[in-house]
């Protein structure tokens, strides 16, 4: 009976691949090393997030006689002046410290020159895994060959190909956890429907009013923004957009807000604060993301599509200024009937951010673009 329960696709344990990746993410969140395997590759990898001198020394001792190298994304490589189309391996030198390694990952510029070569499949999977943990998109990695650990705690092993399939699996694992009526201060009636995935992630569908699900439904995809949604930050337009969207849906007779745990366009709160620091040093929101090694948008739209399908909402009118949302949600299987703009007020603190969204990221902010063209 035990063998049947622990098979490759048990309802209790899930698939072996999914379980190994979810455990790998948990290890990275705890800043522990993970073994990533691919044909002819066995890499021991450690997140750069949280690196200090003691952790670096212990990791190098654990890898010996192999020598760790630094793996960064192609975006970060470009920021360092390296022509790259894929993640890159960068050699470490004898005088490297935890601080110098972190500087190679987070600083806007770097005076240190490192030899770099395209990373292998296992190293690229390590970058995907660390992104799933919402840490800095860089790892230390050592090729172990046939080395075997004899005295260390058990190290989780993750197969490289499984990492690439994990996001799809996580989206498909969404289940409806609970729901309740939530009256808002504005007087608007809503129902909150909470979804959970196999990783313990929480997403919320907010049903505003009484939408007619036999017709195309007005929908707002809203990435959680603690700074603006809760504290009223003026650095972005997120909080204003959320409140405008709820009011607009109520005026339309009902609709849906998907409140998604994708802070900072999928970077996570800690990395979002890192991009803010880079913006304070002069970068715009697009360059701040890519300088840290992220894509401009790291969000998983399959999660939103899965939620809408579970709500029987497959034809939508999307409240957005971002044409990329239309494209990516459509590719995830949702029919986009129309787009409705949702332009929030511009202030002195968010003007540069809004300008970058319009001129760099293609957001349809017609009022702002008209003002930029004729400031008089």
In spatial order, strands of the major sheet run 7-6-5-8-4-3-9
What's the structural domain tally? 2
The outline comes out as: globular
The SS-based structural class is: alpha+beta
Structure summary, number of beta strands: 16
Full CATH superfamily name of the largest domain: DHBP synthase
Rg result: 23 Å
Beta content: 15-25%
CATH topology of the largest domain: DHBP synthase
Helix content: 25-40%
Mean pLDDT: 90
Largest sheet: 7 strands, mixed
* Count of runs of 4 or more consecutive helical residues: 16
Uncertain residue segments: none
- Can you name the CATH architecture of the largest domain? Alpha-Beta Complex
Produce the secondary structure layout.
Blueprint: H1 2-5, E1 9-10, E2 14-15, H2 16-29, E3 34-38, E4 41-47, H3 53-63, E5 69-72, H4 74-79, E6 88-90, H5 98-106, E7 116-118, H6 121-132, E8 138-143, E9 157-159, H7 160-172, E10 175-183, E11 189-196, E12 202-209, E13 217-223, H8 226-230, H9 238-251, E14 254-260, H10 263-266, H11 269-280, H12 285-291, H13 301-310, E15 315-319, H14 323-331, E16 335-340, H15 351-359, H16 366-373
Parallel strand pairs: 3-9, 13-14, 13-15, 15-16
Antiparallel strand pairs: 1-2, 3-4, 4-8, 5-6, 5-8, 6-7, 10-11, 11-12, 12-14
Helix pairs in contact: 2-7, 6-7, 7-13
Spell out the key features of this protein.
16 strands, alpha+beta, 376 residues, 39% helix, 7-stranded mixed beta sheet, DHBP synthase, Rossmann fold, 23% strand, globular
């Amino acid at each position: 009976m035990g063998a049947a329960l622990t098979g490759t696709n048990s309802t209790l344990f899930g698939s072996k691949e999914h379980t190994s990746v979810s455990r790998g993410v948990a290890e990275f969140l705890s800043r522990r090393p993970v073994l990533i395997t691919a044909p002819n590759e066995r890499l021991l990898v450690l997140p750069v997030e949280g690196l200090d001198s003691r952790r670096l020394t212990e990791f190098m001792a654990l890898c010996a006689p192999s020598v760790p190298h630094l793996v960064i994304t192609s975006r970060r490589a470009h920021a360092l002046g390296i022509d790259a189309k894929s993640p890159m391996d960068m050699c470490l030198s004898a005088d490297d410290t935890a601080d110098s390694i972190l500087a190679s990952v987070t600083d806007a510029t770097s005076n240190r020159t490192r030899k770099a070569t395209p990373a292998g499949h296992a190293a690229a999977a390590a970058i995907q895994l660390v992104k799933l943990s919402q840490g800095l998109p860089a790892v230390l990695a050592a090729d172990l060959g046939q080395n075997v650990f004899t005295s260390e705690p058990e190290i989780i092993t993750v197969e490289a190909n499984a990492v690439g399939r994990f996001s799809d699996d996580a989206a498909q694992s969404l289940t409806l956890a609970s729901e309740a009526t939530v009256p808002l201060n504005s007087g608007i009636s809503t129902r909150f429907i909470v979804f959970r995935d196999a990783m313990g992630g929480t997403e919320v569908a907010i049903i505003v009013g009484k939408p007619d699900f036999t017709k195309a439904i007005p929908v707002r995809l809203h990435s959680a923004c603690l700074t603006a949604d809760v504290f009223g930050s003026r650095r972005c337009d997120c909080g204003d957009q959320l409140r405008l969207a709820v009011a607009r849906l109520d005026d339309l007779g009902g609709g849906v807000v998907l409140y998604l745990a994708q802070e900072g366009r999928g970077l996570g709160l800690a990395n979002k604060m890192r991009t803010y620091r880079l913006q304070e040093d002069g970068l715009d929101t697009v360059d701040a993301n890519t300088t840290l090694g992220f894509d401009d948008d790291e969000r998983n739209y399959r999660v939103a599509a899965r939620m809408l399908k579970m709500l029987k909402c497959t034809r939508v009118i999307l409240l957005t200024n971002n044409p990329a949302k239309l494209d990516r949600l459509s590719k995830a299987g949702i029919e986009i009937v129309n787009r409705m703009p949702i332009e929030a007020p511009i202030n002195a603190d968010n003007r540069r951010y809004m300008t970058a969204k319009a001129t760099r990221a293609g957001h349809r902010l017609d009022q702002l673009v008209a003002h930029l063209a004729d400031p008089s």
